[in-house]
Amino acid sequence: MGVRYIKIILVIFVGLQGWLYVAGNIANWDAAVGAIGYVLSMADHQVYSTAIFPAVTNPALVTAAFLIVLTGEFLVGAFSFKGAWDLWKVRNASADVFNQAKTFALIGPGMAMVVWFGGFIVIGGALFQMWQTQVGGNSFNGAFAYAITGGLVMLIVAMRD
């Protein structure tokens, strides 16, 4: 029974992470848009100075990219909290019922991997080479930690009861 509570708490933490980043990004809107604009512009790249993709500097596209990030982070929270609630409701049920209630508890951490692995590491890191600058490198390193923890929570929750 204790493992069920740990799974629920871990999914809640993934949800909190998503929504705390949404709140922080909204509270620091101009800085967040600026950071994304800086990464998308591929400015100050010295290690790999030849880009394989054109820089994105259009303010509307930069803002759209930021809104995509915000939406992804919001969905991390929404799916995770829904998943934690679903698990909470069946915490005393049979193993089969508990395992069947895991859908959103898996989608939330999965969405964390989509946002921070797919968005930041694959698109930001591999396509826009964000690792080459201090601003991008710090975001890249943070995204790695968030993607790994989301994936770890997903694996733990996925383990059969």
Secondary structure class reads mainly alpha
Q: Report the helical percentage.
A: over 70%
Distance between the termini: 9 Å
Order of helices and strands: HHHHHH
**Unreliably modeled segments:** none
The whole-number mean of residue pLDDT values reads: 96
- Please indicate the percent range of residues in DSSP E strands (runs of 2 or more): under 5%
Number of alpha- plus pi-helical segments? 6
How does the SSE layout of this entry go?
Layout: H1 2-27, H2 29-41, H3 59-89, H4 95-100, H5 103-127, H6 134-158
Short description:
With 161 residues, the protein is mainly α. The chain contains 6 helices and no strands. The mean pLDDT is 96.
What does this structure look like?
The termini are close together. The longest helix is centred in the middle third of the chain and has 31 residues. The mean pLDDT is 96. Helix 1 packs antiparallel against helix 3, helix 1 packs across helix 5 and helix 1 packs antiparallel against helix 6. With 161 residues, this protein is mainly alpha-helical. The chain is elongated.
List its salient traits.
mainly alpha
